[in-house]
Known about the structure:
The chain is mainly α. It has seven helices and no strands.
Amino acid sequence: IAWEMPGALVGACCGAFALSRLETQWLSVAIALFLVGSAIGYVARGGAGSFRVQPWYFLPSGFVYALLSGLIGGMGPVLAPFYLNYGLTKEELLATQATNRAAVHLIKLLAYAFLGILTLPTLGLGVLVGVAAFPGNLLGQLLLLRISDLQFRRLVTGFVAVSGVLMLWNQRQLFGL
């Protein structure tokens, strides 16, 4: 958290600013390819991690995550490969991710409001989605208690891969499909 947060806070502000000025279609494709590649690398190495992660990696990766999140919305599992390859346990991974996501989303909300691109209806939808997530979080917590670290890593890796494939599918019009 200490390494990721400074970069994430700056990245969230930059991403919110850039959102009001850029087209972002190809960013989704690049992110999707990173997700799929990370999942394939993780599986190919037998769950040993697709790349080695040092603590300081979280400063630039937090910045990039928050910047892209500010540009194209939620980035979901983009940092999961970093957390997995760093060796966090399932509880550590989820707690770290939740803490950082809450801070990034709060900063993005403030930046969007400051830049005049946050509307009241959009804010209302965001609150509704947040409230609707509570039952899923409770079910997730119950599941987390019942699965091993290995099962958790496999689930996260699968989620990373599926997310990347779905992101590519959603941008298929860029490829003429």
